Amino acid sequence: MPTLNAAPYLARSLAPLVRPVMDGRVREVIISDGGSNDDTRAIADGVGATFVEGARGRGIQLIAGAAAARSPWLLFLHADTALDESWSEEAARFIARPDHHERAGVFRFAFDDEAPAAKRAEWWVGLRNNIFKLPYGDQGLLISRGFYDALGGYKALPLMEDVDFVRRIGGGRLALLRARAVTSADKYRRDGYGARARRNLWLLARYLMGADPADLAKSYD
């Protein structure tokens, strides 16, 4: 989980991850931090997560987190996203299938907001997933270590690292899991759902047309 001053969201996002699995084992949870100056580390330490410090940048932080992991399966998740309670059982079923060792799973996108504008945005994300097979990082990514390494993993991009990686995975090797990844809608409520969605779509279009991710990151910030 890449973090940068993620304290307002972190306890909620970590809660479904740090519960013991059915045989009593505790999962390996890694926080890859880019220089937080809030309570991010204290919250991570409080639940027994491994805390990795490094350079700022989501792509760089995802790379660092994956490098620190020891599990044969990896789950990448944004710090403002919390998974449904059912995620663990569904992930276990996905992992158990041998043919999924060269596939990746993503969760169903949802906002922590019941407003009509939020529901319309969720519908558009579902449409993008179904037609273009292009989930973003806020839907999580479940992938075997072997497949991750074979694809070259995430690139050290300041933005669009998720789009770059899922395009290398390929739509035919992506599975949409039923459990939800519930993401904070704070930025959308602040900027307006329509305005922020249009801006994100414009940034994606610029990236697909060859724009430098560093320039896009400045626009995003």
Short description:
With 221 residues, this protein is an alpha/beta fold. The protein has 10 helices and 8 strands.
Order of helices and strands: EHEHEHEEHEHEHHEHHH
Secondary structure: helix percent: 40-55%
Q: Which architecture per CATH? A: Alpha-Beta Complex
Q: Oligomerization state of this entry?
A: single chain
- The CATH homologous superfamily is called Spore Coat Polysaccharide Biosynthesis Protein SpsA, Chain A
Number of domains: 1
Q: So what's the overall shape?
A: globular
Going by helix content, strand content and strand pairing, the class is: alpha/beta
Mean pLDDT: 94
Strand order of the largest sheet: 4-7-6-8-5
Strand segment count: 8
Q: Sketch the major β-sheet.
A: 5 strands, mixed
Low-confidence stretches: none
Structure description:
It is a single chain. 46% of the residues lie in helices and 18% in strands. The protein has 10 helices and 8 strands. It has a 5-stranded mixed sheet. The radius of gyration is 17 Å and the shape is globular. The longest helix is centred in the middle third of the chain and has 17 residues, at 116-132. The model has no long low-confidence stretch (mean pLDDT 94). It has a single domain (2-220), classed as Spore Coat Polysaccharide Biosynthesis Protein SpsA, Chain A (Alpha-Beta Complex), CATH 3.90.550.10. By secondary structure, the protein is α/β, with parallel strands linked by helices.
